[in-house]
Amino acid sequence: MDKADIGLIGLAVMGENLAMNMESKGFFVCVYNRTPQKVADFISQRAKGKNISGAYSIGELAGSLKLPRKIMLMVKAGQAVDDFIELLIPALSPGDIIIDGGNSHFSDTIRRTEYVESKGLLYVGAGVSGGEEGALIGPSIMPGGSPGAWAHIKPIFQAIAAMAEGGIPCCGWVGSGGAGHFVKMVHNGIEYGDMQLICEAYFLMKEYLQMGPGEMREVFAEWNLGVLDSYLIEITRDILGYRDENGEFAVEKILDTAGQKGTGKWASEASLDEGVPLTLISEAVYARCLSAMKEERVKASDILTGPSGGFAGDAGEKKAFIEDIRRALFASKIISYAQGYALLSAASATYGWDLKYGEIAMLWRGGCIIRSSFLADIKRAFDRDPGLCNLLLDPFFCEAVKNAQGGWRRVCAAAVSLGIPVPAFLSALSYYDGYRCARLPANLLQAQRDYFGAHTYERVDRPRGEMFHTNWTGRGGTTAASAYTV
């Protein structure tokens, strides 16, 4: 019997669809699941007549694969991944490859790569984005881990990945250790930010302009033809136009509490570790947390007061304000990506990954949730300057924000004056104003720290790195605390 090209463990939605995708591209796949009935059902139903076989033990799976064996885990992140690694190691031979295609934390992938390599095997942590549909017809794949594994998995991964313009696969080697899962984590953080920004644009149109879903659908349809062209704008258009079985707009019947799986939170935590402001994405995470406090918010709405009022302008003024919202959305989106890429840059230096930022943008051009035409502009920015420290300093993005700035500020001012919550828009603008400010009030903050804790400070008239302490009260001594940065 012929040996399979790759093994896949885990037959939930993503695992099944990836197996079908691999088979459709000409690869022989062997699947395994801890519940034997799932294997039997898949083989006899959806995979019937396909070049897919089933295994009912780890030993049978390992014995069915070509050398070097390639086994992809599509199981829940966490302990399940470690458990399967322990089950697989005794069944594998030196040079065989274990691939984690779930949403694992990058630090776990670093640890697992080192451990699996110590056993003579190779390990890959592959971020996979695109959801159920992407897994079946072409996801974005971000593999990293043991560099020696790439040549063996490349033909399969690039064949099943989404294709960008010119037939370029949205899959490329990211870097060693946890690089693949870190890039996927940042992708998901940007996804959080994009979704929150779109929701704030929707909320302004709904609450301030008193627009209905059908009218908003037309706005998003128009936006999707310009610089905001993206998967998330496209599906927002479709959602706003969708009517239920009663002919009513379905979106208005959905409870306003959002869930999350943790990758946005991980991105925020990583930004704190790296000392990189990820303010917009963090606000998007917190907005979901606030939305989950439904009962508390309902109670607060009867107690707490704020401004009220709707739009009182004519049709021309309404159209102009919708354009301002579009500008605010575009400018804030730039900020989100600028912050995300700054985090990638910091982590690349910390872990020695040597990330290729333009290529990462191309990995996201198809298949994934944040796919958009905008990513081509990011690729061009890093082509112009591979050492670019912030997207805002690229001429294209600098000019784009300059042109959008007036509308962006008008939208934020209107939202604040009317009490409409737009945390991501406001956070993005505050970051922009802080980043372009040559002198911030941190001089006073550092004086406060020195006053109560003798933490020292630098002076504008002395070389950087030279530290000073002042006895502010006359009662302290000259001893200063050691300087450190968290």
Overall strand count:
10
SSE ordering: EHEHEHEHEHEHEHEEEHHHHHHHHHHHH
Which structural class matches the secondary elements? alpha/beta
Helix content estimate: 40-55%
Mean pLDDT: 95
Tell me about the biggest sheet?
A: 8 strands, mixed
Low-confidence stretches at least 5 residues in length (pLDDT < 50)? none
Cα radius of gyration in angstroms: 26 Å
Shape type: globular
Number of helices: 19
Q: Strand-residue fraction? A: 5-15%
Distance, first to last CA: 58 Å
Order of neighbouring strands in the sheet with most strands: 3-2-1-4-5-6-7-10
Structure description:
This protein has 486 residues and is α/β, with parallel strands linked by helices. 53% of the residues lie in helices and 8% in strands. The strands form two sheets. An eight-stranded mixed β-sheet has the order 3-2-1-4-5-6-7-10, with helices on both faces. α2 (36-44) links the parallel β2 and β3. The mean pLDDT is 95.
Question: Could you outline the blueprint of secondary structure elements for this entry?
Answer:
Elements: E1 6-9, H1 13-24, E2 29-32, H2 36-44, E3 52-54, H3 58-63, E4 70-73, H4 79-88, E5 97-100, H5 106-118, E6 122-129, H6 131-137, E7 140-145, H7 150-160, E8 163-164, E9 168-169, E10 175-176, H8 179-207, H9 213-223, H10 231-241, H11 263-274, H12 279-291, H13 294-301, H14 315-351, H15 357-363, H16 374-384, H17 395-418, H18 423-435, H19 442-453
Parallel strand pairs: 1-2, 1-4, 2-3, 4-5, 5-6, 7-10
Antiparallel strand pairs: 6-7, 8-9
